[in-house]
Write a structure and sequence with these properties.
The protein has 268 residues and is an alpha/beta fold. 43% of the residues lie in helices and 16% in strands. The longest helix is centred in the N-terminal third of the chain and has 16 residues.
């Protein structure tokens, strides 16, 4: 292969990679030379990878990470933004990269392998659980650039950590370390960078040993009941319960327990 072919191969490398690890889909943002920042290629690649994971009955959970060991995602590609605006990076009702505003029924674990700034922090906040490398940093620096964190940062931070801490992060634009993120409850675990993907996959596997229909129903109830009054929340709980109890897996779980064996989930 000559230099031109090598360069072409590098140029054509997908902006998003995905691979199945058992019942887990590992999705990797793959623009390391651009800080894994969001341009249309990455936006549509992430949208497509999430669509595949959602549609695949053998995928029970997703791990989202970035290429390299310094930057998880630097947010919007500012060079692209300066030239084209946000054209092509907001996808319909799903928002930035087809992810920020979508409902995804399966658990998503974010494995933050470095800086998660701006839209990168908003990607992490849009996930259900976060495992961070020791060198990770989190921040919403938009106010330092005269723009708004419009990808859910203010919305989700105010729901994730105490108000005073959220407002300090949002109004100063200053980043915090992985350890500080752990202290305030923003992340679930901090590990050495070389242990990040194994730790995230291990957490995902602890989820995927459970019945996928029950996991999805529990996630749905947990999120959707937050802003409901108690009566509405119990009504939703009853609807989800009835749906789950009609499944084969709801019978397999008790049967496997009685027979002292591991359950064989069918996701139906």
């Amino acid at each position: 292969m000559d230099n031109q072919e090598v360069n072409a191969a590098i140029i054509e490398e997908p902006a998003v990679l995905s691979e199945k690890r058992g019942h887990v889909m590992l999705i990797t943002l793959n623009r390391p030379k651009a800080g894994n920042s969001v341009n249309p290629d990455l936006a549509w690649g992430l949208e497509n990878a999430l669509n595949m994971a959602e549609a695949d009955p053998e995928v029970f959970a997703v791990v989202l990470t970035g290429s390299g060991s310094k930057i998880f995602c630097g947010g919007m590609d500012l060079k692209y933004l300066a030239a084209h605006g946000n054209q092509g990076v907001y996808i319909g009702e799903h928002g930035l990269a087809g992810f920020i505003e979508r409902w995804f029924s399966k658990p998503i674990i974010c494995a933050v392998n470095g800086a998660a700034m701006g839209g990168g922090c908003e990607f992490a906040l849009a996930c259900d659980l976060i495992v961070a490398a020791e060198n990770a940093r989190f921040g919403q620096p938009e106010v330092k650039r005269g723009i708004l964190a419009a990808g859910g940062g203010p919305i989700r931070l105010m729901r994730s950590v105490p108000k005073a801490i959220a407002l300090e992060l949002l109004l100063t634009g200053d980043p915090i370390s992985a350890q500080r993120a752990l202290e305030i409850g923003l992340v679930n675990k901090v590990v050495p960078v070389e242990e990040l993907i194994p730790a995230a996959l291990e957490l995902a596997e602890r989820i995927t040993v459970n019945a996928p229909i029950a996991v999805k129903g529990t996630k749905e109830l947990a999120y959707k009941s937050v802003d409901m009054d108690v009566k509405e929340a119990f009504e939703l709980s009853g609807k989800i319960r009835d749906r789950i109890y009609k499944s084969e897996d709801s019978k397999e779980g008790p049967r496997a327990f009685a027979e002292k064996r591991a359950p064989a989930w069918k996701n139906r």
